[in-house]
Amino acid sequence: MEKKSVRKDYFNFLRNPRYEKNIEVNPSRKLIILFKVFVLSYVGILIVTIPQTILVLFEVFKPVEMKSIKIYDSIVQQSSYKPYFNLLSVIIYPILEEISFRLPLTNFNVRNFKISFSVFSGLLISFLLVDSLWWPSTNFAFFLIEIFYILVLSCIVFILLNYKRDAFVNLKKRWNQKPNIIFYSSATLFAFMHIFNLDLDIYDVIFLPLILLPFFIFGISFGYVRIRLGLTYSILLHMIINGLVLGLRELG
Fold it and tell me: Going by fewer Cβ within 10 Å, which terminus of the chain is more open, N or C?
């Protein structure tokens, strides 16, 4: 990797994903790689959003907004919940999402898979039940209870998985033989998970692949960084991107 350009390695990896970590790369070099992947990701985002931009110009469909951004604009900026919202968006959710989607991107490890699947399930169930759960009125308590629900649900799923040990035997063989399928499935699932955070109309469904494509680009970049540099760096990249989105919102 030291002798190879990051751009070439990035695209070579995407052509043929493998669970190959760059163990010998030092921390300063990792940060340089991280920055270059960040730039490549946004170049990719600019390219894949061109069709959306054209469709918007011709008024074929309206830009789809993220629910979290709408909440941020309409409620959070005018309330004392803002620091908790920022903490969730920039720190907590990147950690949980990277554990959910990127932790198991190695040769099959039962513990990693159980943790990943459990946290993913905790996030998914909490999103589906958000309107049915009890929520406190104070900001700090609301912040804590949101994390509490996700962690409790994750723990329940993890305990249940311990009763299904035999189910992982066949999965291990397929997981190790098909890293390309696992890698792109992870990025695709990551993109589709963001449906819960999109303010979609029924007419937007036909354009869903275009709408979700930017999230897929981020998913493959996070996956590349996780495999090449480690989970800590994919979490860091995720935090930087989420922080940039909110930072630009502040400037706007």
Answer: C
In the DSSP assignment, the letter for residue 89 is I
Amino acid at 170: N
Q: Name the β-bridge partners of 180.
A: none
Burial of 163 (0-12, 13-18, 19+ CB in 10 A): exposed
Tens digit of each residue's pLDDT (9 = 90 or more) over 112-171: 999 999 999 999 999 999 989 999 988 899 999 999 999 999 999 999 998 877 778 778
At 252, which amino acid appears?
G
Stated pTM of the model:
0.93
CA distance 234 to 33: 11
DSSP β-bridge partners for residue 198:
66
What amino acid occupies position 150? I
> Judging by beta carbons within 10 Å of its beta carbon (0-12, 13-18, 19+), is residue 202 exposed, middle or buried?
exposed
Structure tokens at 102: 């990127």
Count of CB atoms situated within 10 Å of the CB of 209: 10
Spatial separation of the C-alpha atoms in residues 68 and 25, rounded to whole Å: 36
